[in-house]
Amino acid sequence: MNMTSSTHQQQQQHVGPQSVFCKPISSRSPKDEDTEALAGFLLSLKHRSVTPEPHHPLNDPVSPRADETSQPDMSHYPTSDSRTQSPFQNVSASSSTVTETTPPQSPVVSSSSSALQDSEIDLEALIGDSKLVLMKDRDLVPDPLFAAMAQMKPCRLQHADRVGCYKNRELGFVGMCCMHCGGQPGFGRYYPNSVRSLAQTTTSQTILKHIGGKCRFAPPEIREAILELQRQQAVREGLPTGRPRYGSRKIFFQRVWQRLHDLDVEEGSEAQGSISASSSKASDEEMASLHSEDEEVCAANGKRKSDASFEGSMPYRKRAKSHDSQDSFPTQVSNV
């Protein structure tokens, strides 16, 4: 008994120092396990390689993909095949996709042109019986200017119109004025002295502004038609149309100038014809009065001739006495 206890004590003395530093696995706490795991993780971070091995998460069926946990959905990004292409190819590809997605311009142009055709304005009704503009002149200038010039009529410069640049114009100079309001001095009346001044852009724009907004007597339908034609012209400027041609504006205003002064010549000839007719009538009356006077003179002369022949039949002495007294005439005749 004593021997067994002594051997047990010796074993305890032999094992005792090791039991102090080494604990059995079953007696480890969860905190110690976490500490060891953390220490192993830090060691792995310390000894890891700088360049990681190429590894795609799709090839690893066991481990979860990092893209699913930390990154958003990348399905709309290009695939791995497109990543190997050059950036210039990517730019060309993106530009091709943009050109494919953008709609063509032809439907827009066709729709706008069809809208213009649907809202076509009757220009013949706007022109009416204008003496300065005809329908054959339509292809020479834009429609707004064509319709606005049709609202002008000939007029003559008066003393009140001699203001501004018309100060030195002579009275009766032919020009144009608005047919709706008649114009006022310096407003609505235009007296260009040549075709060049008539064809200036300032003159045409002034006429357009007067008919389109300033004239208070212009009918609303004419004013709205002019404004609509201006809107259509702004849209039509981007379309490849064949009118107006180069130099056609000058041709148009040459025709207007010719018609304006032809009317002046016609009015002058009519006035001259009326003057000549009145003068011929007066001359006829004068001739008739002269004829009547001549007849009276002839009648008087005939009476005088008859008296002279009667007196010529008497003697000279008796004829001399007859002038002395009228009472002695019967006695003298009886004596003869």
Structure, explained:
60% of the residues lie in helices and 4% in strands. The protein is mainly alpha-helical. It has a domain at 117-265. It has a three-stranded antiparallel β-sheet. 12% of the residues are buried.
Q: What brief labels describe this structure?
A:
336 residues; mainly alpha; three-stranded antiparallel β-sheet; 14 helices; disordered C terminus
What is this entry, summarized?
The protein has 336 residues and is mainly alpha-helical.
Estimate the mean pLDDT confidence: 68
Biggest sheet features: 3 strands, antiparallel
* Percent helix range: 55-70%
Q: Which structural class fits the helix and strand makeup?
A: mainly alpha
As residue ranges, the low-confidence spans are 14-22, 61-70, 80-118, 313-336
| Portion in beta strands | under 5%
Shape: rod-shaped
Number of strands: 3
- Helical stretch count? 14
Report the C-alpha radius of gyration, rounded. 61 Å
Distance between the termini: 244 Å
User: Order of helices and strands, N to C?
Assistant: HHHHHHHHEEEHHHHHH
Q: Enumerate the strands of the largest sheet in spatial order, edge to edge or round the barrel.
A: 1-2-3
Biased composition (Polar residues): 69-90, 327-336
Region (Disordered): 1-115, 267-336
Biased composition (Low complexity): 1-14, 91-114, 270-281
